[in-house]
Amino acid sequence: MRVLLSTFGSRGDAEPLAALAAALQAQGAQARVCTAPDFAPRFEQAGVELFPVGPTVRDWIREVMADPKPNIRERGAQVMDMYFDALPRAAEGCDAILATGLFPSTVAAQSVAERYGLRYVYAGYCPIYLPSAHHRPFQFPDRPPPPDSADNRERWALNTTIMQDVFGDAANRHRAALGLPPADRLRDRVFTDRPWLASDPVLSPWAPTSLCEVEQTGAWILPDDRPLAPDLRDFIEAGDAPVYVGFGSMGLHAWSDAARVAIDAARGLGRRIVLSGGWAGLAPVDAGEDCFAVGEVNQQALFPRMAAIVHHGGAGTTTAATRSGTPQVIVPQIADQPYWAGRVADLGMGVAHAGPIASVESLGEALAAALRPETRARARVVAEMVRGDGAAVAAKRLINSVNN
């Protein structure tokens, strides 16, 4: 049995597929991944065959951000073009396709699976992306909002229409080229009537709803045994536990002094800092010996050794931080990040900063709250509750669904 896993997105979208691929291979299946080339080293580390597609995600996002008024329809069509071109070759000899990530790439995955008669699964990493009476869909920025009186059911129904209007023409052009009939409810076809939710049920519970029946597998986590660099390890051991600051794939274009704010906030509490450059290119602001700069790093080895973790609230980083038992401060920027910030606060294991731009005062206040003994104690309790077998659960379920 061979499975193709497909996504287009940041590290938080790609790395879980490396975990699932490794779990599939551990259970006797073959797995390959189709995604952007940014994360090739992690797939190589996991022993997973990568079919790279398109430019790097980072370059694509830079191009989108440079456009003062990006056209969602055109950008979506661009991603579809890349994936409709790449997926048929990647799917050769496969029995199933599982897709996640940016919606246009999943459109291509579903259509290719339909064309070649392959088992198809859609998976999401956060419940707020799936239809539910308990939360609203995201508002498309170029579309008028529904009336305030509309309930969540009405909003999700409208979302079906909007998704069709935005992505339907490009999708049906490609479907016709594959010999497939047009799709008139594209979102529902791609999501299927039973999508998977690859998030931890403690950190990210799914509330039952008649709008969507979900199979929650737990988060897909790739074990990482890479050691920390000796100079980083020496820095950590030279004093009290530092504070980690990193914002992953966020460019932080509207928060140009993020490094200065974070460093000053930590220093104000007498804490040293491990500063992750990320896509924002954060760097030390002076020659102070209390700040250590890192690039790509093993979060599983680093986070348990931190006093607190300041981050953007991506699904992957939030899960890794939660599993480490270290308190968190989330400064959410976009998309699902306010949701994860809210969950960390609701569980009592950290603080959700109010808004995407922090000051030294606001971040210092949030960090002081995260550093309280009761917050650390709660973070350790929650860490013990979070499962680590989500990828194995999903792999077994996927293999059974194809074989049965």
Overview of this structure, please?
This protein has 404 residues and is an alpha/beta fold. It has two domains: 236 residues, Rossmann fold (3-Layer(aba) Sandwich), CATH 3.40.50.2000; 156 residues, Glycogen Phosphorylase B (Rossmann fold, 3-Layer(aba) Sandwich). The protein contains 15 helices and 13 strands. The protein has a seven-stranded parallel β-sheet with strand order 3-2-1-4-5-6-7, sandwiched between helices. A six-stranded parallel β-sheet has the order 10-9-8-11-12-13, with helices on both faces. Helix 9 links the parallel strand 8 and strand 9. Helix 4 packs parallel to helix 5 and helix 9 packs across helix 13. The chain is globular and about 65 Å long.
In short:
The chain is α/β, with parallel strands linked by helices and 404 residues long. It has helices spanning 11-26, 40-45, 57-66, 72-90, 103-116, 152-177, 186-191, 230-237, 258-268, 299-302, 315-324, 337-346, 360-370, 373-385, 390-403; strands spanning 2-6, 30-35, 49-52, 96-99, 119-124, 196-197, 215-216, 243-245, 273-276, 291-294, 308-311, 328-330, 350-352.
